[in-house]
Model the fold of this input.
Amino acid sequence: MDTDQSGLLSVIVPAHNEAPGIEHAVGVIGEALAPSGMRWEIIVVDDGSSDGTFDRVRALARTDARIKGLRFTRNFGKEAALLAGLRAARGDAVVTIDADLQHPPHLIPKMIQEWQKGCMVVDAVKRSRDNDGIFARLRARLFNSLLSRLGGIDLSNSSDFKLLDRAVVDTIARRLPERERFYRGLSDWVGHRHISIPFDVEMRVQGQGKWTFWKLVALAITAMVSFTSAPLRIVTALGFVTLIFGFAVGTEALIGWSQGRAISGFTTTICTLLILGSFIMLSLGIIGEYIAKIYDEIKARPSYLVESAIGVEDEEAVTSEGTLLGVRPVSRYQP
Done:
């Protein structure tokens, strides 16, 4: 790890329809980096915005060569934007931060200090979420708790606000072949020396949050399927429950028949069919999610397509998934 104060720090900022605040966000991040004493670059990854976000990034890049940008052909999602940023980053250390400034940029110098002490991954964890609604807090708590228990990775109050050493970046961006990604989980899975720094979630400066309920559900499913096979074991458990239930019902029917009693049967049969049908459909749904993810991986489509790039030198890293992963190159068009 290069701990020289003159080392390069890359800051990745995924953005989707952030035109009203992207210039302010880049300015605040740049000011926060000044005390670090490191050279820096800010890479804004425009995830298919429709509001002129990339035009404003282009204008910033023309006045400051340290500001760089990528634009996707469409909205591929935050995970793809983070991956593209990691592949484009040249820094000895890389910070990922949200464009809405709910991740406080003034914490970055402290993260750099921990990295210079030898920490390979510096996690910024949420100490409080008072600026989030009650539903958002409950949703995040449930998601993190389920994945932490089932997946065996610690996601308590986790966020995408992290600092990664160059070696960790290369592992995540180059050596892990999956297309369906969960950045928070991967950064924990790779191991290395971690340290956590707490922060309070700030108010969003401008615009509105882009995470809808269904987008969060899709991310939760991806995370669950990517990091644990526990749901498949639930299917096995349901099978045993069904077996025990069926054995109990069958025993009761045989006892009634042997004693010459009429078997009422109808209500029991209906309840049994409903329970068995529910278990079967639930099991098929869980198995189907895993098969769907396998299908997506086998197709081997690129995680993203880059339409435009500004100031990014490593074009091979940006415009293709890389020969290491054996994926077809994606198209790129210069404005």
In short: The chain has a mean pLDDT of 76. Residues 109 and 158 are 19 Å apart (CA to CA). DSSP finds eleven helices and eight strands in the chain.
